Amino acid sequence: MDGYDPSSQHFVDDPYPAFDKLRAGPPSVFDETTGQWLISRYPLVAGLLRDRRLGRTYTHVADHESFGRERPPDYLAPFWATIGNGMLDREPPDHTRLRRLVSSAFTPRRVAALASRVQRLTDDLLDRLIDAGSDGSAVDLVAGVAEPLPVTVIAELLGVPEADRELLRPWSATICRMFELNADRTDGEAAASACVQFGDYLRQLAARRRTSPTDDLLSDLVAVVDADGDRLTPDELIGTCVLLLNAGHEATVNATGNGVWALLRHPEQHVRLRADLDGLLGPAIEEMLRYDCATPMFERWVLSDITVGEPATGDEPVTVPFGAELALLFGSANRDPSVFRDPDSFDIGRAPNPHLTFGAGIHFCLGAPLARMEMTTVVGSLLRRVPNLAPTTEPRYKPGFVVRGLHSLPVTVR
User: Fold this and answer.
1) CATH superfamily of 9-412
2) Long-range contacts for 157-163 (Cβ within 8 Å, ≥24 apart)?
Protein backbone atom coordinates (compact mmCIF):
# COMPACT_ATOMS: atom_id res chain seq x y z
CA MET A 1 0.00 0.00 0.00
CA ASP A 2 3.08 2.24 0.22
CA GLY A 3 2.25 5.45 -1.66
CA TYR A 4 -1.18 4.43 -2.98
CA ASP A 5 -3.54 7.25 -2.03
CA PRO A 6 -6.10 8.43 -4.62
CA SER A 7 -7.00 11.34 -2.34
CA SER A 8 -3.45 12.71 -2.56
CA GLN A 9 -2.53 15.14 -5.33
CA HIS A 10 1.06 13.89 -5.08
CA PHE A 11 -0.15 10.39 -5.97
CA VAL A 12 -2.45 11.59 -8.77
CA ASP A 13 0.43 13.57 -10.29
CA ASP A 14 2.59 10.43 -10.51
CA PRO A 15 0.94 7.15 -9.44
CA TYR A 16 3.51 4.94 -11.14
CA PRO A 17 5.98 4.41 -8.25
CA ALA A 18 3.08 3.25 -6.09
CA PHE A 19 1.88 0.96 -8.89
CA ASP A 20 5.37 -0.59 -9.06
CA LYS A 21 5.23 -1.42 -5.35
CA LEU A 22 1.72 -2.88 -5.63
CA ARG A 23 2.70 -5.19 -8.51
CA ALA A 24 5.65 -6.47 -6.47
CA GLY A 25 3.37 -7.42 -3.57
CA PRO A 26 0.48 -9.87 -3.17
CA PRO A 27 -1.87 -10.46 -6.12
CA SER A 28 -4.59 -8.49 -4.36
CA VAL A 29 -4.37 -6.03 -1.47
CA PHE A 30 -7.27 -4.62 0.53
CA ASP A 31 -7.24 -0.84 0.83
CA GLU A 32 -9.04 0.10 4.04
CA THR A 33 -9.35 3.74 3.02
CA THR A 34 -11.36 3.10 -0.16
CA GLY A 35 -12.79 -0.30 0.86
CA GLN A 36 -11.51 -1.82 -2.39
CA TRP A 37 -9.35 -4.80 -3.27
CA LEU A 38 -6.57 -3.54 -5.54
CA ILE A 39 -5.56 -5.55 -8.60
CA SER A 40 -2.40 -4.16 -10.18
CA ARG A 41 -0.81 -6.79 -12.45
CA TYR A 42 -1.63 -7.04 -16.15
CA PRO A 43 -2.46 -10.79 -16.32
CA LEU A 44 -4.85 -10.50 -13.37
CA VAL A 45 -6.53 -7.30 -14.57
CA ALA A 46 -6.95 -8.68 -18.10
CA GLY A 47 -8.37 -11.96 -16.80
CA LEU A 48 -10.75 -10.39 -14.30
CA LEU A 49 -12.15 -8.02 -16.93
CA ARG A 50 -13.44 -11.15 -18.67
CA ASP A 51 -14.51 -13.02 -15.52
CA ARG A 52 -18.31 -13.33 -15.33
CA ARG A 53 -18.12 -13.78 -11.54
CA LEU A 54 -17.62 -10.02 -11.50
CA GLY A 55 -19.97 -7.28 -12.59
CA ARG A 56 -20.16 -3.55 -13.15
CA THR A 57 -23.33 -3.78 -11.07
CA TYR A 58 -24.75 -6.28 -8.61
CA THR A 59 -28.42 -5.31 -8.61
CA HIS A 60 -29.25 -8.07 -11.10
CA VAL A 61 -28.23 -10.72 -8.53
CA ALA A 62 -28.93 -9.15 -5.13
CA ASP A 63 -30.49 -6.16 -3.43
CA HIS A 64 -28.28 -3.71 -1.56
CA GLU A 65 -28.85 -5.20 1.87
CA SER A 66 -28.11 -8.81 0.94
CA PHE A 67 -25.02 -7.65 -0.94
CA GLY A 68 -23.79 -5.95 2.21
CA ARG A 69 -24.07 -2.42 0.83
CA GLU A 70 -26.01 0.62 1.93
CA ARG A 71 -28.94 1.72 -0.18
CA PRO A 72 -28.00 4.88 -2.10
CA PRO A 73 -29.54 8.04 -0.62
CA ASP A 74 -32.71 9.34 -2.24
CA TYR A 75 -31.04 12.49 -3.54
CA LEU A 76 -28.92 10.32 -5.85
CA ALA A 77 -31.92 8.59 -7.44
CA PRO A 78 -31.81 10.64 -10.70
CA PHE A 79 -28.09 9.98 -11.06
CA TRP A 80 -28.32 6.22 -10.57
CA ALA A 81 -31.42 5.95 -12.75
CA THR A 82 -29.56 7.63 -15.60
CA ILE A 83 -26.30 5.71 -15.18
CA GLY A 84 -28.11 2.42 -14.62
CA ASN A 85 -29.91 2.71 -17.95
CA GLY A 86 -26.64 2.83 -19.92
CA MET A 87 -25.02 -0.40 -21.05
CA LEU A 88 -21.82 0.17 -19.04
CA ASP A 89 -23.68 -0.44 -15.78
CA ARG A 90 -25.71 -3.39 -17.01
CA GLU A 91 -24.79 -7.06 -17.06
CA PRO A 92 -26.10 -9.88 -19.33
CA PRO A 93 -28.71 -10.42 -20.51
CA ASP A 94 -29.59 -6.71 -20.28
CA HIS A 95 -26.11 -5.62 -21.37
CA THR A 96 -26.15 -7.99 -24.34
CA ARG A 97 -29.46 -6.60 -25.52
CA LEU A 98 -28.47 -2.95 -25.07
CA ARG A 99 -25.09 -3.34 -26.75
CA ARG A 100 -26.70 -5.09 -29.71
CA LEU A 101 -29.23 -2.31 -30.17
CA VAL A 102 -26.72 0.53 -29.77
CA SER A 103 -24.14 -1.19 -31.99
CA SER A 104 -26.67 -1.45 -34.79
CA ALA A 105 -26.90 2.37 -34.80
CA PHE A 106 -23.38 3.36 -33.68
CA THR A 107 -21.73 1.52 -36.56
CA PRO A 108 -18.15 1.58 -37.88
CA ARG A 109 -19.57 3.15 -41.04
CA ARG A 110 -21.07 6.04 -39.06
CA VAL A 111 -17.78 6.59 -37.23
CA ALA A 112 -15.80 6.46 -40.48
CA ALA A 113 -18.16 9.00 -42.02
CA LEU A 114 -17.11 11.47 -39.32
CA ALA A 115 -13.47 11.51 -40.41
CA SER A 116 -13.66 14.47 -42.77
CA ARG A 117 -15.71 16.48 -40.28
CA VAL A 118 -13.25 15.69 -37.45
CA GLN A 119 -10.43 16.92 -39.70
CA ARG A 120 -12.24 20.18 -40.51
CA LEU A 121 -13.04 20.83 -36.85
CA THR A 122 -9.43 20.12 -35.90
CA ASP A 123 -8.15 22.48 -38.60
CA ASP A 124 -10.46 25.26 -37.39
CA LEU A 125 -9.38 24.84 -33.78
CA LEU A 126 -5.71 24.79 -34.75
CA ASP A 127 -6.18 27.91 -36.88
CA ARG A 128 -7.39 29.76 -33.79
CA LEU A 129 -4.70 28.30 -31.55
CA ILE A 130 -1.89 29.16 -33.96
CA ASP A 131 -3.26 32.66 -34.48
CA ALA A 132 -3.50 33.22 -30.72
CA GLY A 133 0.11 32.12 -30.28
CA SER A 134 1.53 33.84 -33.34
CA ASP A 135 3.35 36.38 -31.16
CA GLY A 136 5.15 33.63 -29.28
CA SER A 137 2.93 33.74 -26.21
CA ALA A 138 1.77 30.54 -24.51
CA VAL A 139 -1.53 28.99 -25.56
CA ASP A 140 -3.44 26.16 -23.87
CA LEU A 141 -3.66 23.03 -26.00
CA VAL A 142 -6.27 21.47 -23.69
CA ALA A 143 -8.71 24.40 -23.69
CA GLY A 144 -7.99 25.29 -27.30
CA VAL A 145 -8.17 21.87 -28.99
CA ALA A 146 -8.31 18.76 -26.79
CA GLU A 147 -11.43 19.86 -24.91
CA PRO A 148 -13.68 21.45 -27.57
CA LEU A 149 -13.10 18.83 -30.28
CA PRO A 150 -14.61 15.72 -28.60
CA VAL A 151 -17.66 17.53 -27.25
CA THR A 152 -18.34 19.04 -30.68
CA VAL A 153 -17.95 15.65 -32.35
CA ILE A 154 -20.31 13.95 -29.85
CA ALA A 155 -22.80 16.80 -30.22
CA GLU A 156 -22.77 16.50 -34.01
CA LEU A 157 -22.91 12.71 -33.81
CA LEU A 158 -26.04 12.89 -31.64
CA GLY A 159 -27.53 15.77 -33.62
CA VAL A 160 -27.50 18.35 -30.81
CA PRO A 161 -28.15 21.79 -32.38
CA GLU A 162 -25.14 24.11 -32.31
CA ALA A 163 -26.91 26.65 -30.08
CA ASP A 164 -27.33 24.01 -27.35
CA ARG A 165 -23.83 22.52 -27.35
CA GLU A 166 -22.46 24.74 -24.62
CA LEU A 167 -24.74 22.84 -22.23
CA LEU A 168 -23.03 19.49 -22.78
CA ARG A 169 -19.59 20.07 -21.30
CA PRO A 170 -20.84 21.29 -17.86
CA TRP A 171 -23.33 18.42 -17.65
CA SER A 172 -20.65 15.87 -18.54
CA ALA A 173 -18.06 17.22 -16.10
CA THR A 174 -20.60 17.39 -13.27
CA ILE A 175 -21.86 13.84 -13.83
CA CYS A 176 -18.36 12.37 -14.15
CA ARG A 177 -17.29 13.97 -10.88
CA MET A 178 -19.49 11.35 -9.16
CA PHE A 179 -17.22 8.53 -10.37
CA GLU A 180 -14.36 9.77 -8.19
CA LEU A 181 -13.68 7.98 -4.93
CA ASN A 182 -14.02 11.14 -2.82
CA ALA A 183 -17.29 12.46 -4.28
CA ASP A 184 -19.42 14.04 -1.54
CA ARG A 185 -23.07 15.06 -1.13
CA THR A 186 -22.51 18.38 -2.92
CA ASP A 187 -21.09 16.48 -5.90
CA GLY A 188 -23.98 14.04 -5.77
CA GLU A 189 -26.68 16.67 -5.71
CA ALA A 190 -25.02 18.51 -8.59
CA ALA A 191 -24.72 15.28 -10.61
CA ALA A 192 -28.36 14.37 -9.95
CA SER A 193 -29.44 17.83 -11.10
CA ALA A 194 -27.31 17.54 -14.24
CA CYS A 195 -28.87 14.14 -15.02
CA VAL A 196 -32.37 15.60 -14.69
CA GLN A 197 -31.53 18.57 -16.92
CA PHE A 198 -29.74 16.48 -19.54
CA GLY A 199 -32.51 13.87 -19.47
CA ASP A 200 -35.24 16.47 -19.95
CA TYR A 201 -33.31 18.03 -22.81
CA LEU A 202 -32.74 14.68 -24.56
CA ARG A 203 -36.37 13.63 -24.18
CA GLN A 204 -37.48 16.79 -25.97
CA LEU A 205 -34.87 16.34 -28.69
CA ALA A 206 -35.76 12.65 -29.12
CA ALA A 207 -39.44 13.55 -29.47
CA ARG A 208 -38.55 15.86 -32.35
CA ARG A 209 -36.44 13.16 -33.96
CA ARG A 210 -39.31 10.67 -33.80
CA THR A 211 -41.51 12.92 -35.90
CA SER A 212 -38.75 14.53 -37.99
CA PRO A 213 -35.70 12.24 -38.15
CA THR A 214 -32.39 13.58 -39.43
CA ASP A 215 -29.06 12.00 -40.33
CA ASP A 216 -27.69 11.64 -36.80
CA LEU A 217 -27.14 8.95 -34.18
CA LEU A 218 -30.03 10.08 -31.98
CA SER A 219 -32.49 9.59 -34.84
CA ASP A 220 -31.04 6.13 -35.45
CA LEU A 221 -31.22 5.21 -31.75
CA VAL A 222 -34.85 6.37 -31.61
CA ALA A 223 -35.70 4.24 -34.64
CA VAL A 224 -33.53 1.16 -34.08
CA VAL A 225 -35.44 -2.13 -33.84
CA ASP A 226 -33.76 -5.53 -33.81
CA ALA A 227 -34.92 -8.73 -35.49
CA ASP A 228 -37.09 -9.60 -32.48
CA GLY A 229 -38.84 -6.24 -32.56
CA ASP A 230 -36.97 -5.02 -29.49
CA ARG A 231 -36.00 -1.36 -29.12
CA LEU A 232 -34.54 1.04 -26.55
CA THR A 233 -36.92 2.27 -23.89
CA PRO A 234 -37.06 6.07 -23.39
CA ASP A 235 -34.94 5.75 -20.23
CA GLU A 236 -32.42 3.50 -21.98
CA LEU A 237 -32.15 6.04 -24.78
CA ILE A 238 -31.30 8.75 -22.24
CA GLY A 239 -28.81 6.51 -20.43
CA THR A 240 -27.14 5.61 -23.70
CA CYS A 241 -26.74 9.23 -24.81
CA VAL A 242 -25.35 10.29 -21.42
CA LEU A 243 -22.88 7.39 -21.54
CA LEU A 244 -21.77 8.38 -25.06
CA LEU A 245 -21.20 11.95 -23.94
CA ASN A 246 -19.31 11.04 -20.76
CA ALA A 247 -17.19 8.23 -22.17
CA GLY A 248 -16.67 9.79 -25.58
CA HIS A 249 -15.81 13.20 -24.24
CA GLU A 250 -14.20 13.16 -20.79
CA ALA A 251 -11.85 10.26 -21.49
CA THR A 252 -10.83 11.55 -24.94
CA VAL A 253 -10.04 15.06 -23.65
CA ASN A 254 -7.73 13.63 -21.01
CA ALA A 255 -6.17 10.99 -23.26
CA THR A 256 -5.27 13.66 -25.81
CA GLY A 257 -3.80 16.04 -23.23
CA ASN A 258 -1.90 13.30 -21.40
CA GLY A 259 -0.65 11.84 -24.68
CA VAL A 260 0.69 15.08 -26.14
CA TRP A 261 2.34 15.92 -22.82
CA ALA A 262 4.05 12.50 -22.84
CA LEU A 263 5.36 13.24 -26.33
CA LEU A 264 6.60 16.72 -25.44
CA ARG A 265 8.49 15.56 -22.35
CA HIS A 266 10.31 12.99 -24.48
CA PRO A 267 11.85 15.25 -27.14
CA GLU A 268 13.75 12.44 -28.83
CA GLN A 269 10.42 10.68 -29.50
CA HIS A 270 8.91 13.97 -30.67
CA VAL A 271 11.70 14.34 -33.25
CA ARG A 272 11.36 10.68 -34.24
CA LEU A 273 7.62 11.01 -34.84
CA ARG A 274 7.93 14.18 -36.91
CA ALA A 275 10.53 12.43 -39.08
CA ASP A 276 8.18 9.53 -39.90
CA LEU A 277 4.66 10.73 -39.21
CA ASP A 278 2.99 8.45 -41.75
CA GLY A 279 4.71 5.33 -40.45
CA LEU A 280 4.69 5.98 -36.72
CA LEU A 281 1.52 7.96 -35.99
CA GLY A 282 -0.65 4.87 -35.38
CA PRO A 283 1.80 3.19 -32.96
CA ALA A 284 2.43 6.56 -31.29
CA ILE A 285 -1.26 6.98 -30.48
CA GLU A 286 -1.33 3.50 -28.91
CA GLU A 287 1.72 4.36 -26.84
CA MET A 288 0.10 7.61 -25.67
CA LEU A 289 -2.95 5.61 -24.59
CA ARG A 290 -0.75 3.13 -22.70
CA TYR A 291 1.88 5.34 -21.16
CA ASP A 292 -0.26 7.80 -19.17
CA CYS A 293 -3.70 6.25 -19.00
CA ALA A 294 -6.60 8.71 -18.66
CA THR A 295 -8.78 6.04 -16.99
CA PRO A 296 -6.34 4.35 -14.59
CA MET A 297 -8.95 2.52 -12.50
CA PHE A 298 -12.24 0.73 -13.15
CA GLU A 299 -14.34 -0.96 -10.48
CA ARG A 300 -15.96 -4.39 -10.50
CA TRP A 301 -18.23 -6.02 -7.92
CA VAL A 302 -17.56 -9.59 -6.77
CA LEU A 303 -20.73 -11.60 -7.46
CA SER A 304 -19.34 -14.84 -6.00
CA ASP A 305 -16.16 -15.62 -4.05
CA ILE A 306 -13.04 -15.58 -6.22
CA THR A 307 -9.43 -16.60 -5.69
CA VAL A 308 -6.88 -14.19 -7.10
CA GLY A 309 -3.32 -15.21 -7.88
CA GLU A 310 -0.81 -16.35 -10.47
CA PRO A 311 0.37 -19.86 -9.48
CA ALA A 312 3.26 -19.70 -11.95
CA THR A 313 4.77 -16.80 -9.99
CA GLY A 314 4.57 -18.60 -6.65
CA ASP A 315 1.79 -16.37 -5.34
CA GLU A 316 -0.06 -17.19 -2.16
CA PRO A 317 -3.67 -17.08 -3.50
CA VAL A 318 -5.92 -14.39 -2.07
CA THR A 319 -9.65 -15.07 -1.59
CA VAL A 320 -11.86 -12.06 -2.30
CA PRO A 321 -15.38 -12.58 -0.97
CA PHE A 322 -18.86 -12.04 -2.40
CA GLY A 323 -19.89 -8.41 -2.00
CA ALA A 324 -16.39 -6.97 -2.27
CA GLU A 325 -15.38 -4.28 -4.72
CA LEU A 326 -12.31 -4.66 -6.94
CA ALA A 327 -10.24 -1.75 -8.21
CA LEU A 328 -8.76 -2.93 -11.51
CA LEU A 329 -5.76 -0.66 -12.01
CA PHE A 330 -5.45 -0.17 -15.77
CA GLY A 331 -2.70 2.40 -15.25
CA SER A 332 -0.61 -0.15 -13.37
CA ALA A 333 -1.35 -3.02 -15.78
CA ASN A 334 -0.19 -0.83 -18.67
CA ARG A 335 3.25 -0.53 -17.00
CA ASP A 336 3.64 -4.22 -16.08
CA PRO A 337 7.16 -5.37 -17.04
CA SER A 338 5.93 -8.95 -17.48
CA VAL A 339 4.06 -7.74 -20.58
CA PHE A 340 5.77 -4.52 -21.71
CA ARG A 341 9.52 -4.32 -22.29
CA ASP A 342 11.02 -1.33 -20.45
CA PRO A 343 7.48 -0.22 -19.48
CA ASP A 344 8.42 3.17 -18.04
CA SER A 345 9.95 4.25 -21.34
CA PHE A 346 7.81 6.17 -23.82
CA ASP A 347 8.43 4.38 -27.13
CA ILE A 348 6.30 5.52 -30.09
CA GLY A 349 7.32 2.45 -32.08
CA ARG A 350 6.36 -0.04 -29.37
CA ALA A 351 5.08 -3.33 -30.78
CA PRO A 352 3.22 -5.25 -29.66
CA ASN A 353 1.28 -2.89 -27.42
CA PRO A 354 -1.68 -4.75 -25.88
CA HIS A 355 -2.63 -1.98 -23.43
CA LEU A 356 -5.87 -2.19 -21.46
CA THR A 357 -6.88 1.47 -21.69
CA PHE A 358 -10.15 0.63 -23.48
CA GLY A 359 -10.84 -2.35 -21.22
CA ALA A 360 -11.51 -5.92 -22.32
CA GLY A 361 -14.33 -8.43 -22.40
CA ILE A 362 -17.98 -7.54 -22.89
CA HIS A 363 -17.49 -3.99 -21.60
CA PHE A 364 -14.70 -3.14 -24.06
CA CYS A 365 -15.17 0.51 -25.01
CA LEU A 366 -17.64 0.80 -27.89
CA GLY A 367 -16.26 4.25 -28.72
CA ALA A 368 -12.61 3.16 -29.04
CA PRO A 369 -12.52 3.65 -32.85
CA LEU A 370 -13.86 7.20 -32.50
CA ALA A 371 -11.38 8.07 -29.74
CA ARG A 372 -8.50 6.74 -31.82
CA MET A 373 -9.66 8.71 -34.86
CA GLU A 374 -9.90 11.95 -32.90
CA MET A 375 -6.48 11.52 -31.29
CA THR A 376 -4.88 10.55 -34.59
CA THR A 377 -6.35 13.57 -36.32
CA VAL A 378 -5.34 16.02 -33.58
CA VAL A 379 -1.79 14.74 -33.08
CA GLY A 380 -1.10 14.30 -36.79
CA SER A 381 -2.44 17.74 -37.70
CA LEU A 382 -0.65 19.39 -34.79
CA LEU A 383 2.75 17.99 -35.72
CA ARG A 384 2.34 18.78 -39.41
CA ARG A 385 1.35 22.38 -38.75
CA VAL A 386 3.44 23.18 -35.68
CA PRO A 387 6.88 21.60 -36.11
CA ASN A 388 8.32 23.65 -33.23
CA LEU A 389 5.61 22.78 -30.70
CA ALA A 390 7.06 23.08 -27.20
CA PRO A 391 5.77 23.20 -23.60
CA THR A 392 6.25 26.40 -21.62
CA THR A 393 5.77 25.03 -18.11
CA GLU A 394 5.14 21.64 -16.54
CA PRO A 395 1.36 21.18 -16.47
CA ARG A 396 -0.66 20.23 -13.41
CA TYR A 397 -2.99 17.26 -13.17
CA LYS A 398 -6.57 17.75 -12.02
CA PRO A 399 -7.37 16.13 -8.65
CA GLY A 400 -9.39 13.22 -10.07
CA PHE A 401 -7.89 9.73 -10.20
CA VAL A 402 -10.65 7.65 -11.80
CA VAL A 403 -10.78 10.14 -14.69
CA ARG A 404 -7.23 11.55 -14.77
CA GLY A 405 -6.04 14.44 -16.90
CA LEU A 406 -4.39 17.84 -17.10
CA HIS A 407 -5.84 21.18 -16.03
CA SER A 408 -4.09 22.71 -19.04
CA LEU A 409 -1.15 22.21 -21.37
CA PRO A 410 0.57 25.55 -22.07
CA VAL A 411 2.63 25.44 -25.30
CA THR A 412 4.22 27.71 -27.85
CA VAL A 413 3.24 27.20 -31.47
CA ARG A 414 5.52 29.60 -33.34
Assistant:
1) Cytochrome P450 (1.10.630.10)
2) 157/110, 157/114, 157/216, 157/217, 157/244, 157/248, 157/370, 158/216, 158/217, 158/218, 158/241, 158/244, 158/245, 159/205, 159/209, 159/214, 159/216, 159/217, 159/218, 159/219, 160/205, 160/218
Of 281, 300, 279, 288, the C-alpha closest to 361 is: 300
* Section 124-151 average pLDDT: 96
Encode pLDDT of 232-291 as tens digits: 999 999 999 999 888 877 889 999 999 999 999 999 999 999 999 999 999 999 999 999
Report CA dihedral (139, 142, 144, 149) to the nearest 10 degrees: 160
Whether 302 contacts 57, CB under 8 Å:
no
Q: Residue 312's pLDDT is what?
A: 77
Nearest to 76 by CA among 188, 162, 239: 188
**Which residues have CB under 8 Å from 263's CB, separation 6+?**
269, 270, 273, 284, 288, 346, 348, 379
State percent of the chain over pLDDT 90: 90
